[in-house]
Design goal:
Layout (H helix, E strand, L loop, with lengths): L1 H9 L1 H8 L5 H7 L9 H14 L7
Length: 61
């Protein structure tokens, strides 16, 4: 699953764990080690996170 591989490579679980509670998507994107390309990073992260949440890897609030 490519979404899981991306999440691992970006360290998403570590970022959320370090935050100590649930994060909104924009906060997560701002914490990621990627460049925010014209404000589009949220769009690029939304779909893999959607797949991971509904796949049971992360839990929505």
């Amino acid at each position: 699953m490519m979404s899981l591989k991306c999440a691992i490579q970006l360290g998403i679980s570590h970022i959320i764990h370090s935050h100590g509670r649930a994060m909104i998507l924009s906060d997560l994107v701002n914490s990621l080690p990627i460049n925010n390309i014209n404000g589009k990073s949220c769009d690029y992260i939304y779909h893999p996170m959607h797949i991971l949440i509904y796949g049971g890897f992360f839990y929505p609030n």
